[in-house]
Amino acid sequence: MKRIALLAGTLGAVIAGGVLHLLGAGPAGDALWAGGTVLALAPAAWWVASALRAGRLGVDAIAVLALAGALAVREFLAGALIAVMLAGGRVLEDYALRRARRDLTALYERAPRSARRYEEGVPRLIGAEEVRRGDRLLVPGGELVPVDGVVESGSALLDESALTGESLPVEHRTGESVASGVVNAGQAFDMRATATADDSAYAGVVRLTRETEAGSAPVVRLADRFAAWFLPATLLLAAGAWLISGEPVRAVAVLVVATPCPLLLAAPAAIASGLSRTARQGVVVKGGGALETLGRARTLVLDKTGTLTEGRPQVMDVVAAPGGDSDEVLRLAAAVDQMSSHVLAAAIVRAAHGRRLALPAPEDVSEVPGTGTSALVKGRRVRVGKATGARSSPWEAAQRARAALDGAMTVWITVDDQVSGVILLRDAVRGDAGRTLRRLRAAGIERVVMLTGDRADVAETVAGVLGIDRVLAEQTPAAKVEGVRDEARRATTMMVGDGINDAPALAAADVGVAMGARGAAASAQTADVVLTADRLDRIADAMDVARRTRRIAVQSAGTGMALSLIAMAVAAVGALPPSAGAVLQEAIDVAVILNALRALRPIRGTRLPLDRPTSELLRRFEREHADLRRPLELIRDVAGRLGRRDPREALADLRDVHVFLTRDLLPHEHDEEARLYPAMVRLLRDPEATVTMSRAHAEIDKLVRRLGRHLDLAADDGLRPEQLDDLRACLYGLYAVLTLHFAQEEEAYFSLASSSS
């Protein structure tokens, strides 16, 4: 308010003095202009004194000299204009920083303040700080989720844009986690609190946001170093112009156009704008220095688990023992695991819910940590966990061999001491990982390194899929630190991780990035950048913003300083009087600040533009993929049973496979060819972009026709022996082509929809 009052006072003096001059009262007008000059001289002197006490001598000293010089040479209009320029520059700078930090401020201003807790079956309004773990809460439509928790009944449709930057509402089903600070965009739902307000995700984001500052960026510190030589250079030029011409007014003119320094205004405004832009996208950057270093990174070091992979196991297959049913195996396992807190148990229960299996209530539950859980389910003793006993059937040996080849974990299910089946789980690679790494390479990353404590064979498999340059596997936390330091000695290095064991490595990197949505608090506190959304593509978004922000800051400052130096030279030779110089310098200052604020605008960067119709189309086909994936396993299972079953039963299995392929799968593939692929060609602007995918469709059609011909050739009493080899090759080939094709579409196309916000 004081700076606005100063601007109003100085501007009023200029206008009133001008009116008096027009009315012929020149001396009175000069007096008003002189008063406006004096009005700004006092605070300007105070700013210089404050800077000196802090050990800095900035360009505000030039403003003081210009104001005093204007009074001395009786250039009262110039002095009054300098006063307006100085006050206006301060107000404009305050506005720029306030506008730039608006999104950061909005994050903690909208923190949840209240909650509706059930007490004796009735929801009662309480303060959010009163919520305790285990409380049952009601979240009405349109209100904020007050604390972290899980959906207890029904489903929740949440607007997570403020926390994650995701523009479309996200649906969470019963048992799924929800974060505090997001808005209920659907019907009211009940949730169970898993954290207090202080320990919830939104509170963590607020704490991290308060740490962000613009002033520590290297480009901002450059302004301080610039002032060290710019001030004496300006004084020498002003003194030289006075000595050579004998006209002190030229010295004042030089001082006028040198005040204030555009670099000091442009750099903080641009950096603060960049911090605000990243916050809007779900990325909290702890300071301008971190933002600029992020933009200069050339080496990317990544943890595997939770960073390149989902960070939680997912059921990849349920295999029933010969003569069993996979749905029944999963249903029994999930019924027992409902009572377990183990991460694999949670994955099994999620898979059962995904198949819409009804889970009976277990009795007499017993859990042995590290071994498994057992319970009575409808009178049968069901055990879920590690295999027991030394004996192993050929079928069990085959499942172990497959798990080893796939890098999968196994959970064995026994019913009344008889092996009923096995569940294979794997930590899947993130769908957006491949595209994000390609975007980061386009943004300037030249080398990608995976640093993980996982087994070498598992790490190499993931690295091969993603095209990673170097793999360091089976690393201890100390070895991770040394690995990061080794890379940092070669180039500016960014490290991305999420676990407690990643915290030292994040600190060792030039810029550490923590996956803060589900990651450990230690990593989030150590890191320079925290992703509030559990999405890897936000790193690429942040790097796009960082590079653009630095470019705008340097561009604004460089252009402004070049114009100021030219104006100083013109003033030194007497071609620019003080009054005109003051107006010109004000225009330069306004221009550089407005240019710096361009960093607030959204940018496409390395992200492909995706319109809503195309996004909805991609999401539709992505959902269809999810529904088709499980039946794909039927193809491989039938191929594995060929030759071991009765010919009539094998023929019935093949007919089931053929019905699935012709009724469900092929219509999906043909619809993709007709609708999705033309949209991808338009989006990618490359008619060759879908050629390989179309070739896969042709191969799928050919193999399905081949399978149909085998069915036509089969006798009424079943398959003939001479058909088995070709049928087995056809089915395994079809399974391999479909699995690869699905993976390619999900990475190349569907990942665009998941990162379109």
Automatic annotation (TrEMBL):
<feature type="transmembrane region" description="Helical">
    <location>
        <begin position="76"/>
        <end position="92"/>
    </location>
</feature>
<dbReference type="GO" id="GO:0016887">
    <property type="term" value="F:ATP hydrolysis activity"/>
</dbReference>
<keyword id="KW-1003">Cell membrane</keyword>
<dbReference type="InterPro" id="IPR008250">
    <property type="entry name" value="ATPase_P-typ_transduc_dom_A_sf"/>
</dbReference>
<feature type="transmembrane region" description="Helical">
    <location>
        <begin position="226"/>
        <end position="245"/>
    </location>
</feature>
<feature type="domain" description="P-type ATPase A">
    <location>
        <begin position="111"/>
        <end position="209"/>
    </location>
</feature>
<keyword id="KW-0067">ATP-binding</keyword>
<feature type="transmembrane region" description="Helical">
    <location>
        <begin position="552"/>
        <end position="576"/>
    </location>
</feature>
<dbReference type="Pfam" id="PF00122">
    <property type="entry name" value="E1-E2_ATPase"/>
</dbReference>
<feature type="transmembrane region" description="Helical">
    <location>
        <begin position="32"/>
        <end position="49"/>
    </location>
</feature>
<dbReference type="GO" id="GO:0019829">
    <property type="term" value="F:ATPase-coupled monoatomic cation transmembrane transporter activity"/>
</dbReference>
<dbReference type="InterPro" id="IPR059000">
    <property type="entry name" value="ATPase_P-type_domA"/>
</dbReference>
<dbReference type="InterPro" id="IPR023214">
    <property type="entry name" value="HAD_sf"/>
</dbReference>
<keyword id="KW-0547">Nucleotide-binding</keyword>
<dbReference type="Pfam" id="PF01814">
    <property type="entry name" value="Hemerythrin"/>
</dbReference>
<keyword id="KW-0479">Metal-binding</keyword>
<protein>
    <submittedName>
        <fullName>ATPase, P-type (Transporting), HAD superfamily, subfamily IC/heavy metal translocating P-type ATPase</fullName>
    </submittedName>
</protein>
<dbReference type="InterPro" id="IPR051014">
    <property type="entry name" value="Cation_Transport_ATPase_IB"/>
</dbReference>
<dbReference type="GO" id="GO:0046872">
    <property type="term" value="F:metal ion binding"/>
</dbReference>
<dbReference type="Pfam" id="PF00702">
    <property type="entry name" value="Hydrolase"/>
</dbReference>
<dbReference type="InterPro" id="IPR044492">
    <property type="entry name" value="P_typ_ATPase_HD_dom"/>
</dbReference>
<dbReference type="InterPro" id="IPR036412">
    <property type="entry name" value="HAD-like_sf"/>
</dbReference>
<dbReference type="InterPro" id="IPR012312">
    <property type="entry name" value="Hemerythrin-like"/>
</dbReference>
<dbReference type="GO" id="GO:0005886">
    <property type="term" value="C:plasma membrane"/>
</dbReference>
<dbReference type="InterPro" id="IPR023299">
    <property type="entry name" value="ATPase_P-typ_cyto_dom_N"/>
</dbReference>
<dbReference type="InterPro" id="IPR023298">
    <property type="entry name" value="ATPase_P-typ_TM_dom_sf"/>
</dbReference>
<keyword id="KW-1278">Translocase</keyword>
<keyword id="KW-0812">Transmembrane</keyword>
<dbReference type="GO" id="GO:0005524">
    <property type="term" value="F:ATP binding"/>
</dbReference>
<dbReference type="InterPro" id="IPR018303">
    <property type="entry name" value="ATPase_P-typ_P_site"/>
</dbReference>
<keyword id="KW-0472">Membrane</keyword>
<dbReference type="GO" id="GO:0015086">
    <property type="term" value="F:cadmium ion transmembrane transporter activity"/>
</dbReference>
<feature type="domain" description="Hemerythrin-like">
    <location>
        <begin position="618"/>
        <end position="752"/>
    </location>
</feature>
<dbReference type="InterPro" id="IPR001757">
    <property type="entry name" value="P_typ_ATPase"/>
</dbReference>
<keyword id="KW-1133">Transmembrane helix</keyword>
<dbReference type="InterPro" id="IPR027256">
    <property type="entry name" value="P-typ_ATPase_IB"/>
</dbReference>
<comment type="similarity">
    <text>Belongs to the cation transport ATPase (P-type) (TC 3.A.3) family. Type IB subfamily.</text>
</comment>
<feature type="transmembrane region" description="Helical">
    <location>
        <begin position="251"/>
        <end position="271"/>
    </location>
</feature>
